[in-house]
C-alpha cells in the first residue's frame, strides 16, 4: 500500500475525531456525519448507516442522538453540567484505497487510488466519557459518573464536500471530508 494513503488515513482519523466528538460534546446534531443523510449517497442507492450502541441496533443517527440525550439526563446532572467524551487513543486503517461508490466521474479522474482521497477507512477510537462535568471546566476532575468507551467507524469519502473543495480554492472542512457508513459504540464501567 502506498505510504500517502497510510499518512492520510491517520490525518483523516484525527480530523474526523476532532469534528465528531466536538459535535457530541457540544450536543450538536450528528446526522451530517452519517451517510444516511447524504444526498449523493442516497441518490446512488446506498443503504442507511449501520449503527449499534451497546448492542442496540439503531435505524438513524437521530436515534443515536436520543440515546446520547438520555445519557445526559440519566445522571440527574444539574443544568450547568455536561457529558464530555475524551479520546485517549485511535487507530485508522485503509480498507479500500480505490473506493468509488457514488463518486462523480470527474472526482474519480481527479483523485487516483494512491492520493489519500478515494479511501474507505476503519477508525477505532477509545477513551473516557465523563457524565456531569462542569460546563466550562478545563479538566475533567469534577464529574458524577465516569465510563470508558470504544467506537469503531467505517468511513467513506463525503463526495459533496470533496467536490466543493476541488471546485474552489477553499479547503473543505477537514472533519467532514469522510462520513460514517457503520458505527459500533460501546460504553462500559471504568
From TrEMBL:
<dbReference type="InterPro" id="IPR018222">
    <property type="entry name" value="Nuclear_transport_factor_2_euk"/>
</dbReference>
<feature type="domain" description="NTF2">
    <location>
        <begin position="12"/>
        <end position="187"/>
    </location>
</feature>
<protein>
    <recommendedName>
        <fullName>NTF2 domain-containing protein</fullName>
    </recommendedName>
</protein>
